[in-house]
Amino acid sequence: MQTPLEQKLATMRVSMTPTVYDQVFRFFDFLKHNTTEKNHSRVYLTEQSIKTNLKKYFGHKTLFLDAQLYNLLSGWTKGKRIYFDHFVE
């Protein structure tokens, strides 16, 4: 049985079309903090996971991009976890 969050994501997936949803999730999946989590509704980003993974992607630190991306996604709230369902909304 699906949790309410999983049901909400399933509805969003249909409304976004699977192709768009999958592209958005790939981006989120690359930056996520909890790398072993398989459930989309429980996957989240942190400020540190964004810094770490963008550094891997670009091959060097990206201080401005890290900070701006995290601030934008977190609503300028320090220490906030950004869950996939909130990101999609």
From the structure above, extract its key features:
globular; 2 strands; 89 residues; mainly alpha; single chain; 4% strand; two-stranded antiparallel ribbon; 63% helix; 5 helices
> Which segments are poorly predicted (pLDDT under 50) over 5 or more consecutive residues?
none
Number of helices: 5
Helical residue percent? 55-70%
Largest sheet: 2 strands, antiparallel
C-alpha end-to-end distance? 23 Å
Biggest sheet strand order reads: 1-2
Secondary-structure content class: mainly alpha
The total count of strands amounts to 2
Domains, number: 1
SSE order, one letter for each helix or strand: HHEHHEH
Strand content: under 5%
Radius of gyration (Å):
13 Å
> What general form does the structure show?
globular
Mean pLDDT: 89
Mind explaining what this structure looks like?
It is built from 5 helices and 2 strands; from the N terminus they run ααβααβα. Helices cover 63% and strands 4% of the residues. The protein has helices at residues 4-16, 18-31, 47-58, 63-74, 84-88, and strands at residues 44-45, 82-83. The chain has 89 residues and is mostly helical. It has one domain (4-88).
